[in-house]
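cron nightly-structures :: item 1 of 1
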Amino acid sequence: MTDTPEAVFEALRENNERPYGRPRTVRAEELVEAAEQFDDKGALVTALFELMSAYTYSGEERKSPVVFARISRMWDARPEDFSEWEEHQLYWRYKWVTTALLQVPEVPLAAIERWTGEMRDRYRTAGHGMQPVYAMRYQVAAHTGAGRDEAYDLWVSRPRTDLSDCEACETRHLALHHVAAGDDARALEAWAPVLTGRQTCLEEPFASMAHALTPLLRAGRLDEARSCHLTGYRFARGKPDMAGSIGLHLEFCALSRNEGRGLEVLAENRALFEITGAPLDRLDFLTGVEILLARLAGQGHEDVAVAGPPGRNWTVGTLLSQVRADASGLAAAFDARNGTAAVSARRGARLAGEPLVDEPLALGIRAKAVAGTPRAVPPAAVAATAEIPDDFAGLVARARELSLVGQPAADALWARIRELTQRPGHVHDDRVGPEVVLRAELAERLGFDGFDREEWEPARTAMLRAAELYEEAGEPWRAAAARARAVTALVAANERDPAVDCSTARADLDAEVRLAEGLLAAREGAGSGMEADRCLAILQCAAMVTRHALLAELPEPSEAARADFDASVERLLRAAERWQSPSRASAARQYAADVAARDGALETATEQLTTALALLEEAGQPWRTPRPLALLAQVTMQSGRAAEAVPLIHQALAAAARWPDATLSLGPFHALLGHAGAHSGDLTAAVRHLSEAADRLDRDGADEHAAQIRLELADLLAQDGRQADSVAVLESVLLGGTEGIEPRLLAQVRLNLARGLAALGEKRAAAEEFLRLADVVAEWTDEQFTHTLVACEAAAALARAGMWDAARTAYARAVSSHGVAPRPAPVAGMMREFARLTMADEEAAGLDKALAHLAEADALCAAFPESTDDFVTWYQTGATHYQRGRSYVTANAYDEGLAEMERAIAAYEAGGHAGEEPRAEAVRIAALIEANALGSLPAATARLNAAITRCEQAGFPDAAAALASVRAGLAEG
């Protein structure tokens, strides 16, 4: 019911809690009607201001001038109906109307100029400064392009007033002036206070982040561009009043070669197509859409389905045609109104933009797969395109030559051979040797492909088929090598699935080793290089299998497993030296290095890898170096020399780029670089490379590894103070398709996300995330301790969000879980937090409830009298006394409050040096109670003097400074 002014005001307060959008606007319109019935027009004035805000922030700016006209008439008739705040808003919103009139091409330019003239007259009559008037005149000139520089000078040469735009918004307009003049460097310098968060408001820094995206890309400041997109888009997403910003984010996606991400952004903001109440913002949005779609159409994706205006299905081609027509019509309408071509010229300049990076800029977020648009893959991740001979015999000869030395370029040649041999009517070419040998080689290649994809059973089947064909061809060496590789596939399958029977694997492999040794002995001095290499391949398989067996027993392998591995590696080394195969010797040393590193023998691992790399150089096979270089970098990092690891990884990436290998995932290499950057203190490099790693792992389909990397990336971003970026990364992990991610890893992501949302002040979203997490972990019968922790955090988050019923339920669940799996520290912390929040919400009326929570905390602490690593008794006791003291003070029970602070001080003293900082905080509150509530300034000063000296002597200068500041404030009265 809204039958009294008080009821209308209460309804206005409730409506103010809603997000801007159509429901809030409709309710605002209803409340204006309700307020019209009262003789006292105060409620109507307030309701009209709220309706004007609703139109402005819901993309219906064309309606706001009509509302303001009514407000203005009411002011002229009865200014006493306006509060002091509403009077200020009256003059403030003259600027809103100017912006709203510019938004609508049907409003004549002369009418806008008359409006700024009225604004000038109103300000002058009321005694306000003229700077805001000239700021609006500059906005008109910047829009039309007529007299822009002159208007700029008239604006910036005047001092700011209390009706000037906030500093952050004014900074945005200053920076955009420099962008329009082609001076990106000056614009970005001007933007620095906003982009770094020193100047903020309701819309900033988010609006500036959108506008700065292209200048940042042009300047090569890619890390900042990435951050502006992550944080800025997260704020703008779905907001009707930020359609222009969404258009700029779409443009960024096209210019940074993230077209797939752009289609995702478009789908998430499909509703903006239906918002027509702010035509200029709509034009900016449609132009961004057109840039993205034109880029996709240019890549041949005209028929890909995309999200467009509701009511029909759209493709890139059909939506592009529609958007282009709509946007061109709007631009022409503005030009006709303005009498200039400025709007069309700005639009044309945006449409003419080309991508500003050579490869897709890694954003670090997980993008949803968009049907029909394959992810762009950087050149370094694509297999080398070998020169493919036209002659079939030459093709086979070249493939065999490259395969013998492990050149990854051989893959493309074998793929071509397979394609040719499978064509109908293909006739075998006798120049390449027996057909059965070629068939065996093609089967062997299928086996290698299975190894690369970790599809062990198909790999084993293909290798066994190859062995049969080699036997048929009379090549026992190659048959034995194929069978040995089949054994390694069986062992690898057993690692993934213990049900796979590999009980005879070792015996089978030993038989192949004996066969190879016998064949070599029979042909001593007469064997070919290829035959020797096949025997070495069998010995390498043996070393690989014993390595698997040893790793399976870590961290305490048996002496037998270690002896088997050492013997197999030594045997491979001796044979490689005998047959002069440095590449096989390198492989043996890499196995030895891997085991040594896992065993903590880092110096041994380093020596082995250094020798392994030297052997590859001797062999002239640099394409084999990326993996050992990466392993050496890992060992170097484990040795505490992160900075030295960085050039090793760069060297590995350079080799991978020079000799591309489709089977080599570069995601882990970039992850290594990210870890090295983090450990060496270079957070910027760490963020850059972890973002690249996550993107590449996405392309590889390694969802779980990508999620783990994003968890690390989000932690680094949060450490760097970029909490919004961190949350954006974590949110992206929880997009659809999480089936391939381990549930506990997902739970950790959700926990970190909930904490991140809380840190951003998004209390309701944090509480909802905690609730989801609590529901998930409640089903973990083996993780009850985790459930207790999560339930505590969920309860506190729900209480902070004002969701008290759900909070109390979560509180009870946490206490119940604690009874099964005790986690006293988080439970006691939850109880204290409930006491604090109860007092903040109910003030003195909530004292009994708060004291009840604190009594529960006392009882809990009493049940755990001995300190542990997770529960420090003196701290918990002191913190409970401290919160009880604060609760008493809030209820104006100052004597009781001071007594509790004394108890808190005593408890913290028991902590020794570790308790000094919380003790100082308790002293601070005690002194304030004494001086301000109990009138004992000398006692408070004496207390502070003693505590300041104590903190200085204990080495806590910040705590001493805080206490000194309180002392100075009390002295001033």
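cron nightly-structures :: done
The chain is about 70% helix and 0% strand.
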